[in-house]
Automatic annotation (TrEMBL):
Organism: Mycoplasmoides gallisepticum (Mycoplasma gallisepticum)
Subunit structure of this chain's protein: Homodimer, forms a heterotetramer with a Cas2 homodimer.
Protein keywords: Antiviral defense, DNA-binding, Endonuclease, Hydrolase, Magnesium, Manganese, Metal-binding, Nuclease
EC number, as in UniProt: 3.1.-.-
Entry keyword annotation includes Nuclease: yes
The name this protein goes by in its record: CRISPR-associated endonuclease Cas1
Pfam families: Cas_Cas1 (PF01867)
Family in the record: Belongs to the CRISPR-associated endonuclease Cas1 family.
Stored InterPro entries: Cas1, CRISPR-assoc_Cas1, CRISPR-assoc_Cas1_C, CRISPR-assoc_Cas1_N, CRISPR-assoc_Cas1_NMENI
């Protein structure tokens, strides 16, 4: 049975009783067993949450996301210690440049092939553009020194959202949808990394003193096309600027996107992290089924 996503948008206090989340709303008392929850999304900026509940949320590996007054995710609660020993962390801090470059090459190739399959599925391109994406995929080298990832993303954005679209336009409605989706996706990856004993701050390609989610930014790359597809479906295909419904469908898509191995996105993120740790990435396991 799929676990639930709980959005806290109206109530001003959520607490814990035994292993049950308590929501008080308009004098009523609503209870939800923590074991049934995958994610708690707090969109009410005035909501209070009890410390015992926070501890139980972490203990149950529930993804807790807090949004600001503009409904943009600004905070994620993560445990200090993971469910693993320090083995994976010690492996991570010993990464050589050669290892990181090989991993990044595989992640970039996964991202490009998922873009190519999406563009082909939507039938919004020509054979020439498919050939370009194929060439970008073929020409990826260790460390992606020729920036095939950037070229493929730029072409895919142009095909999905038009010639004039730019990721640098902060007030653009498309970027609003993309940014929200990417941040939520990043929280799911972050949770999985912590669960597997890895340090989010130690990235493969993304490196910045100000980025505390560098590794999440790396690992999420092959799955970004899912956010791009959902944004395209709302704003381009259906001309439907309904951000509230988009947020709901975003979480549903994480359950419904099925990969060739029959697993959903949550499961596949965990598979990819473990595959990187074990140096056994099978590309076919991470190809998105757009049908």
């Amino acid at each position: 049975m799929s676990k639930k996503v709980l959005e806290v948008s109206e109530t001003e206090f959520i607490s814990l009783h035994l292993d049950t989340l308590i929501v008080r709303k308009h004098g009523a008392r609503i209870t939800l067993p923590l074991k049934t929850l995958d994610t708690i999304l707090i969109t009410n900026p005035y909501c209070n949450i009890s410390v015992p509940l926070l501890n139980k949320i972490v203990e149950n590996n529930i993804n807790l996301i807090v949004c600001n007054t503009k409904f943009q995710p600004t905070m994620q609660i993560l445990p200090i210690s993971s469910y693993y020993s320090n083995k994976n962390y010690l492996w991570q801090i010993r990464w050589t440049d050669e290892q990181k470059n090989k991993i990044w090459k595989q992640l970039v190739k996964l991202k490009i092939i998922n873009y190519a399959r999406l563009i082909n599925h939507l039938n919004i391109t020509t054979d020439d553009n498919i050939e370009k994406l194929t060439n970008y995929y073929t020409n990826v080298v260790d460390g992606d020194l020729n920036n095939c990832e950037g070229h493929a993303a730029k072409l895919s954005f142009k095909l999905l959202y038009g010639e004039d679209f730019s990721r640098s336009q902060k007030d653009d409605i498309i970027n609003k949808y993309l940014n929200y989706g990417y941040i939520v996706l990043m929280t799911y990856v972050s949770r999985t990394l912590i669960k597997n004993g890895l340090d989010n701050r130690i990235g493969i390609f993304h490196k910045s003193f100000n980025n505390h989610f560098a590794l999440s930014c790396d690992i999420m790359e092959p799955f970004r096309p899912i956010i791009d597809y959902l944004t395209f479906s709302y704003l381009i295909k259906n001309q439907n600027d309904d951000f509230k419904s988009y947020k709901k469908d975003l979480f549903i898509s994480f359950e419904n996107f099925i990969f060739p191995n029959g697993k959903n996105l949550n499961q596949v993120i965990d598979m990819l992290v473990k595959a990187i740790i074990n140096n056994k990435i099978n590309e076919r396991d991470f190809n998105i089924d757009w049908s």
